[in-house]
Amino acid sequence: QVQLQESGPGLVQPSGTLSLTCAVSGGSISNSNWWSWVRQPPGKGLEWIGEIYHSGSTNYNPSLKSRVTISVDKSKNQFSLKLTSVTAADTAVYYCARRYYDFWRYFDYWGQGNLVTVFS
Amino acid sequence: DIQMTQSPSSLSASVGDRVTITCRASQTISSYLNWYQQKPGEAPKVLIYGASTLQSGVPSRFSGSGSGTDFTLAISSLQFEDSATYFCQQSYSTPSFGQGTRLEIK
What we know:
The structure holds two protein chains of two kinds. By secondary structure, chain A is mainly beta. Chain A has strands at 3-7, 11-12, 18-25, 34-40, 47-52, 58-60, 68-73, 78-83, 92-100, 106-110, 114-118. Chain B is globular, with a radius of gyration of 13 Å. Chain B is mainly β. Chain B has strands at 4-7, 10-13, 19-25, 33-38, 45-49, 53-54, 62-67, 70-75, 84-90, 96-97, 101-105. Chain B is 0% helix and 51% strand. The mean pLDDT of chain B is 97.
């Protein structure tokens, strides 16, 4: 059973950088799947941020691309998110998730979520 | 970007009822449509992928249909535990989600 666990600061100052890590257990990050970040502002819907493959290839949401970097550390079986120049609009629960890359490409495993609040 | 629009945004139904939630894509997405259930304080859970395939372990009262731009999630014989928010998500291109449908069980 694959498990994902987010970790990182719960508070970030405006204009600062949000950094989160997702540890993967119960399976290798080097299999044929992509690893994503998805966020959800309080009381709102889901927004896909981006994803990474174990080779380091990435895809990003065009609306966030200029501020997002996703990286992978295969030796630690984890991947990370950096979001720069944050504002209050970036306050959200941040989930890491596995995108199962069969024909349909759906999110089958999720972390429990990490609430990040942007305030000074 | 492909926009996903769900309706209704919320609904209330009774135990034993059958409900449907619709999802419309701004352009054709073939059958690259997935449905998720999210309960308060929890991560989303996939119910259906490829528009109509039930994820392992999901009760058979959940079903999905549609292709192209119009899709439906149906829940028959509602149970109390079905109270949740439901999201559709397209995987035809850069992933995007519908805004969600909140289902209350009376």
